[in-house]
């Protein structure tokens, strides 16, 4: 219908052969963007990972993209969003016949226990009125051993299971899925995504160790709550922990 058509026309794709970082580019230009706009590049000279790390971004072999979204109710509404994005990504990859996918709280995507993709959400705006979100996604599509040596953890890519995967097709499918899930998230929150997360959570029901600076907490992972906090069954009963500088390991 007419409304759908208008929203489809409103979304644009900014394609670069190379750029510093798709997230940085979108963050600089938030006032010009419409929800659903995408930025894609073949190479990032300063790809950003979570916690100030670098996202290794060699030319031509992977997918580096960002989507812009304007959240009408401010930053507080963004709680748990990274988990929703991880769910969208897994669903999209499954439609390309990739098997063995899983998520690790808060937003790492694993393929057979090795990191396949990452999500970095950056935002700017107010706590309670509208806020600009830039959702960055990096997916390892086809990594050479030499490139992989620069990565500081076990990694995986899509080439083993789907050597002829077309990156443009993947980008189009991902844009559609994300767009649909973000609309769902904006109107109903995380609730609908909880059962899905539970299905693909690699630590669900397992004993884990949460590292928070000097401290650590041991517990059985019981999934997440409606704010995206992780739930652990600890000596003190069921406790919820929010993101930030926390990392999760198997115990
Ligand atoms: C992580 O550390 O797991 C998150 C990595 C996110 C990388 C993507 S690649 C496209 C977008 N632009 C960036 O600079 N980073 C994100």
Automatic annotation (TrEMBL):
A GO biological process held by the record: regulation of DNA-templated transcription
Domain of life: Bacteria
Annotated EC: 6.3.4.15
Hydrolase found in the keyword field: no
Enzymatic reactions: biotin + L-lysyl-[protein] + ATP = N(6)-biotinyl-L-lysyl-[protein] + AMP + diphosphate + H(+)
Keyword DNA-binding tagged: yes
Residue ranges annotated for the BPL/LPL catalytic domain, each copy included: 6-186
UniProt function note: Acts both as a biotin--[acetyl-CoA-carboxylase] ligase and a biotin-operon repressor. In the presence of ATP, BirA activates biotin to form the BirA-biotinyl-5'-adenylate (BirA-bio-5'-AMP or holoBirA) complex. HoloBirA can either transfer the biotinyl moiety to the biotin carboxyl carrier protein (BCCP) subunit of acetyl-CoA carboxylase, or bind to the biotin operator site and inhibit transcription of the operon.
UniProt-recorded name of the protein: Bifunctional ligase/repressor BirA
Gene name tied to this protein: birA
């Amino acid at each position: 219908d007419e409304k759908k058509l208008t929203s489809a026309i409103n979304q644009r794709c900014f394609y670069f052969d190379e750029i510093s970082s798709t997230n940085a580019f979108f963050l600089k230009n938030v006032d010009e963007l419409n929800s659903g706009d995408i930025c894609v590049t073949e190479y990032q000279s300063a790809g950003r990972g979570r916690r100030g790390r670098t996202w290794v971004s060699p030319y031509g072999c992977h997918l580096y993209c960002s989507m812009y979204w304007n959240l009408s109710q401010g930053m507080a509404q963004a709680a748990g969003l990274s988990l929703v994005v991880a769910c969208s990504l897994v669903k999209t990859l499954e439609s390309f016949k990739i098997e063995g996918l899983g998520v690790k709280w808060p937003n790492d995507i694993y393929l057979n226990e090795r990191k396949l993709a990452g999500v970095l959400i950056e935002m700017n705006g107010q706590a309670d009125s509208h806020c600009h979100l830039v959702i960055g996604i990096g997916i390892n599509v086809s990594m050479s051993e030499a490139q992989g040596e620069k990565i500081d953890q076990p990694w995986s890519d899509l080439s083993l299971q789907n050597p002829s995967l077309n990156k443009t097709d993947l980008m189009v499918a991902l844009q559609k899925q994300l767009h649909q899930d973000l609309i769902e998230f904006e109107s109903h929150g995380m609730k609908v995504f909880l059962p899905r997360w539970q299905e693909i959570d690699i630590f669900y029901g397992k004993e884990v160790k949460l590292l928070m600076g000097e401290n650590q907490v041991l517990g059985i992972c019981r999934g997440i709550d409606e704010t995206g906090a992780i739930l652990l069954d600890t000596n003190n009963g069921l406790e919820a922990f929010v993101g930030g500088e926390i990392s999760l390991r198997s115990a």
